[in-house]
Amino acid sequence: MPRPKPVPTAPPLAPAAALRALVRIHREYGPGLAARKGALLARLAGARLATAREVLRLHECLAFLRAYPDDRAVLARVEAMMAAFAERADLRRHARALENSGLAGTVTRFRFFEPTARWLARAWPDRLRVDWDTWGAGAADLDHVLPALALWAETPALDEWDLGTRAWIERLKGPNETDGTFLVRRFAGAFGPLAELREKVWDRIEPPLLLEPGPGGPSRTRAFHPRAPRALQRGALRRGRPDLAAALAQPPRAVRALSPVEGERVIALAREAMVARSRDLDAFSHGDPRDVRMVDVGDGYAFAAIGVKPEKRLLLEAVYAFLTLKNGVPIGYVLNSALCHSAEIAYNVFETYRGAEAGVVYGRVLATVRHLFGCDHFTIYPYQLGQDNAEAIASGAWWFYQKLGFRPRDPGAIALMERELARMRRNPRHRSARATLVALADHNLFFASGPPRDDVMGVLPFAQVGGAVSAMLARRFGADRERGARECEAEALGLLGLASLRGWSAGERLAFERWAPLVTLLPGIGGWSAAERAAAADVIRAKGGRRESDFVWRFDEHARLRAAVTALAQGDAGA
Q1: Quick one: CA dihedral 220, 221, 223, 227, positive or negative?
Q2: Sheet order of strands, 209-211 included
Q3: What would the DSSP string read from start to end of 475-505?
Q4: For 29-33, 70-74, 193-197, which range has the lowest pLDDT when averaged over its residues?
């Protein structure tokens, strides 16, 4: 019998074709798609891609699928490819073109804030360098600071030898020390405990730094928290807009307080997520490992809610930063300021994950803020909407929030919005001009789950409180602010019925010292009951305690203290 002819098999897809196919389907979910993704991933695992753009596109597909995996098989293959990504031959070939992409195995360049630069120098001292090529002529700004970084015995040479900034740094640093790490360490040593001054001077000269690749360290490739909630993506992505009122009614599934050790790891993950994207955020830089909570909001989403160390807290509102996690992968962050049952929220989704479930996640942000801080009013400040923020203008951020139910309070902004809505009704294809978006972005947007109030974030001018304190200190003490601090603290102790601060922690004592001038100005405090004064002392103590959200709850529950601060903010000190 003649042998049957073998059935011809299709040749394997070329790497570029396999990548295009993966890009087309990596955000789609349904029958057969997991197997198809698995086959494409297998083809691409050992393939060599021809361009830096192709390497980056593969990485973005992998990063997305790690956060939104179809099944365990897809997840396992993605994790294996991500673990080996820095060793890919095509990445090494195109590493220079991929600088600042956040990929493992590539260089990161940025003008980091001083606390982040100090953290990088401590964690990866051999990989941190000054980016002289970027700094250029701006490096001359460092000349004025160099004498402060040296010992007095070195000043004769500094005064006479015109070596140039770069050569001087090279001469001053140790033989086994990078120039970047030397610069950071000398700032820390020269300014000592004067942290605020050190950070201001650093920010003034803005040294650009370069973090070289190596084992571990910040990258979008390796970013992951193993103890975050998990869930497989069983259905299509929910790209619609949520009902915010319904979302607010759904509390988080669970809130877990982390140990200081795990809290430190989560803060490091948040900082690495920002560094890998050439960003910086003070609330992460000054995160307090004692005040980190993992908030499970379902479907594999979680917010790592990070409080700020007592010495970096604001006088009034409490600032928290959330690292948004999906299956343990950082996909964005939230900056939240809360007081007076209200919150000002900045919401950011990292570029890789935009267009997925941003609306769904935002609804859960508001529900989490309500749960942690007791808020019923929410506001978006102008920068988030596009004021001096080209990215927000380009993304249509103002209309994203408007369609969720946020509205302006400013009469001019309301009128402009109504005109735009009328144009859209006449022509559904109408899109607001850039100039219109810029004008709309000049004013806060608001959303309320109850009757509108004026004593809320975004309306209350808290700057007036600081202004009232300054006026009092200027009138009573002039330049002798140190005496003012001492006398105000003594007066505040008396007003609140405290004999001393015995038993208070260092953070709690600092909070009292900072609040003392304000306490002396609180309208009507002389008529408060002993219980109300004691409760006010507890509010201030909570400001410096382990968890700043406790301060928010206690302040908001203290009717007379809240009314007094509101009166100062509104310029009605006689209330």
Answers
A1: positive
A2: 108-110, 209-211, 128-130
A3: HHHTT-HHHHHHHHHHHHHHHTT-S--TT--
A4: 193-197
Query: What is d(CA 431, CA 388) in angstroms, rounded to the nearest whole number?
Result: 20
Number of alpha helices (DSSP H) and beta strands (DSSP E) in the chain? 27, 12
Q: Which amino acid is at 300?
A: G
- Check residue 137 and give its pLDDT: 78
With b meaning 16 or more CB within 10 Å and e meaning fewer, what string describes 69-97?
bbbeebbebbeebbeebbebebbebbbee
As a whole number of angstroms, the distance between CA 426 and CA 56 comes to 42
Spell out the domains of the chain, with CATH numbers in brackets.
15-93 (no CATH), 108-211 (no CATH), 244-448 (3.40.630.30), 463-569 (no CATH)
Q: How far is CA 500 from the centre of its chain?
A: 37
pLDDT at 3 over 60: yes
Q: What are phi and psi of 334, to 5 degrees?
A: -135, 135
CA-to-CA separations, 185 to 58, 171, 205, 446, 543, in angstroms, rounded: 38, 15, 16, 44, 31
What average pLDDT does this structure show over 349-364? 95
* DSSP 3-state of 215: coil
∠ CA 25-28-31, rounded to 5°: 100
Burial of 167 (C-beta count, 10 Å sphere; 0-12/13-18/19+): exposed
Q: Which two tokens stand for residue 336?
A: 């939240």
Q: What's the rounded mean pLDDT across residues 416-427?
A: 96
For residues 211 and 107, the answer to whether their CB atoms sit within 8 Å is yes
> Helix (H, G, I), strand (E, B), or coil: what is residue 294?
strand
